[in-house]
DNA sequence: TCTTGTGAAACGCTTCACAGCC
DNA sequence: GGCTGTGAAGCGTTTCACAAGA
């Protein structure tokens, strides 16, 4: 229990802190000892001033005229985001997407471990995905309680997502990442983040189409090149 | 004749329009002919007034005192988002996540068809995923030009994402959905949307931890920090 | 000089309240 | 009476400009 003060850090900032942390890991692997806000911002794809403002929520992190210590900043960010402690997660719905997530090394390397994988398909139950055996969805409550998981990931079809969500919440899960294309309703005190992959594509397509209809603003657009 | 004006619709609004469109499809399947902003907003997980403001970007869509025609609003939204016309997409990197996306029916039902799947692994090349045969990544330029695809999806490891991106752009792709955990740099006129799954989980975990540190529920969020 | 840290302005999005129309 | 459409207020985030400090 260090003096980590939970000053309300804006959610948008938290998301970027996670990105900075990953970039710093890469810099550390390259043997770098210091980095400036400009370089770090460039690698993270953000504005340098914005990066400094983000870091200012953690108090002074750098040295003026010099930059940031890679190791020092990394430790600071890691602690602010919850430390290296392992976080037990359960995932429900091992279709294509669920299996991909359960086997995604990007999670494990950040302290997230899937301690429970649940599916309703008898053909999937019993198989091993990402080092964990899939169990029948009937055992959901037992698994959540046994593992004390507070984070749940839903990758089921939309039709059953709400009932799965209800069961997760009843069993003690307070944070849910929802990939099913429905709006989940949860009681106060439970947080849901939604990731909607087809919406992402649709937004991209909209912008793409919008750009195609309007002629190039300056000479920014290259000739498309496809003639017949 | 088609007086649909592509007035700059906020990006956040575009994302929600796609959600409304999906909800409307469900209502149509249920045989509903009309719906109010309240009901539609509830199903989409948003504020009713916000929904009406979103729709206001398309001009008047409903009937005061009555609500919205399900079929009429659906047609309007569909057209605003780019219509039903099929959009050719290419996807590079058929690991677990890439395969899941290529086989995701949620895309196909919205007019997105993967006309090119590319991978560098000889063991993956030649297999069929979601009705399309995987081809060697060397053929990237040829596939993009042959299909006139303007949308690309990158699900490769981070190390090769930038080079894949460069090749997509050079071949004519102007809109990219990036799942690799790196910031891609692209010339002006090209749009990149990034989806970072491990960041989503990390933000969720941060909020989860933050809530765990403050024992009291709900109302206690405001009272932290002030000294009398 | 160089770079961080930060108030303040600027921006975009959300929420509210109510006018307008059925 | 009921519901939509919308100006205006409110809020959070981003950007700017510069003071502070190694």
- Major β-sheet profile of chain A: 7 strands, mixed
Low-confidence stretches of chain A: 1-6, 216-228
Distance, first to last CA of chain A: 67 Å
Find the CATH superfamily of the largest domain in chain A: NAD(P)-binding Rossmann-like Domain
Radius of gyration of chain A from CA coordinates:
22 Å
Number of domains of chain A: 2
Summing up helix and strand content along with how strands pair, one would put the structural category of chain A as alpha/beta
- Architecture of the largest domain in chain A, according to CATH? 3-Layer(aba) Sandwich
Give the overall pLDDT of chain A as a whole number.
90
Count of beta strands of chain A = 9
- Run of helices and strands of chain A: HEHHEHEHHEEEHEHEEH
Shape of chain A: globular
Largest interface: A-B, 72 and 73 residues
Discrete helix count of chain A: 9
CATH fold label of the largest domain in chain A: Rossmann fold
What does this structure look like?
The structure is a homodimer of 228-residue chains. Chain A is of the alpha/beta class. Chain A has two domains: 11-80, Arc Repressor Mutant, subunit A (Orthogonal Bundle), CATH 1.10.10.10; 87-199, NAD(P)-binding Rossmann-like Domain (Rossmann fold). Chain A is 43% helix and 16% strand. Chain A has helices at 11-29, 37-44, 48-56, 70-80, 96-102, 105-108, 140-147, 158-171, 197-213, and strands at residues 34-35, 68-69, 87-92, 112-119, 128-129, 132-136, 151-154, 175-178, 191-194. In chain A, α2 packs across α3 and α7 crosses α8 (158-171). The radius of gyration of chain A is 22 Å and the shape is globular. The model of chain A is unreliable at 1-6 and 216-228 (pLDDT under 50). At the A-B interface, α1, α5, β8, β9 and α9 of A face α1, α5, β8, β9 and α9 of B. Chain A binds a DNA duplex (22 and 22 nucleotides) through α1 and α3.
